[in-house]
Amino acid sequence: MTHVATSRRIVGAVSGLLLAALLCAVLLRGGAPFALDTACHRWVLDHRGRALTDLAVTVTRTGAGVCAYGLAAAGGALALRRPWPWRWWPAALVAMAALLVGQALRTGLAALVGRARPPAADWITHPSGQAFPSGHTTTSTLLAIGVAVVLHRRAGRPATRVAAVVIPGLWAFSVGASRVLLGVHWTTDVLAGWLLGTLVACICLPALAAVLHRIRPDSSGDD
């Protein structure tokens, strides 16, 4: 087992345990928000302005829909070191399918928990579905990890490798924060999304790497 595989398993195990603990706490409270949730929500209502709200709307749009699936497709194509002509599209489809699996897991968990969102009067956008965990946050986290892995392996310089991890990470953090700023999620919904996205990425990346390796034998594996 390589160092990378060991680290991935540790991160996945920690994320899973923290998510399970948070899930149990939410269920025991019947979905009621925690003190942290209400405090952050009040702070947002007291401090968000037009410029910050417009920025949050722009950022949150990148965490779902066409933008998210386009980023997944690009990441899948880039995962092939030297893609042959017309060989990039199966990799793009595989990456988008992996994202779809993550979103399906999130939807199922949200339906199971059935947690209500903050009051609709506080919303800036109009979300759908249950609150826990945040879908935009789960999607952007899963994407950020996948893209970071691909870019890190293709980067040649140490500084570039750091940027390959930091930039996607900051994007995923910003998408999650935007959901709280827009008043459509409690803070713990976002925390759960970060944890779920990390867990799914740790589980799915080896399988995804194996599929990409079959598409193009010189694509890098995960172990």
Automatic annotation (TrEMBL):
<protein>
    <submittedName>
        <fullName>Phosphatase PAP2 family protein</fullName>
    </submittedName>
</protein>
<keyword id="KW-0812">Transmembrane</keyword>
<dbReference type="InterPro" id="IPR000326">
    <property type="entry name" value="PAP2/HPO"/>
</dbReference>
<dbReference type="Pfam" id="PF01569">
    <property type="entry name" value="PAP2"/>
</dbReference>
<keyword id="KW-0472">Membrane</keyword>
<feature type="transmembrane region" description="Helical">
    <location>
        <begin position="163"/>
        <end position="186"/>
    </location>
</feature>
<dbReference type="InterPro" id="IPR036938">
    <property type="entry name" value="PAP2/HPO_sf"/>
</dbReference>
<feature type="transmembrane region" description="Helical">
    <location>
        <begin position="59"/>
        <end position="80"/>
    </location>
</feature>
<feature type="transmembrane region" description="Helical">
    <location>
        <begin position="192"/>
        <end position="212"/>
    </location>
</feature>
<keyword id="KW-1133">Transmembrane helix</keyword>
<feature type="transmembrane region" description="Helical">
    <location>
        <begin position="92"/>
        <end position="113"/>
    </location>
</feature>
<feature type="domain" description="Phosphatidic acid phosphatase type 2/haloperoxidase">
    <location>
        <begin position="91"/>
        <end position="205"/>
    </location>
</feature>
<feature type="transmembrane region" description="Helical">
    <location>
        <begin position="133"/>
        <end position="151"/>
    </location>
</feature>
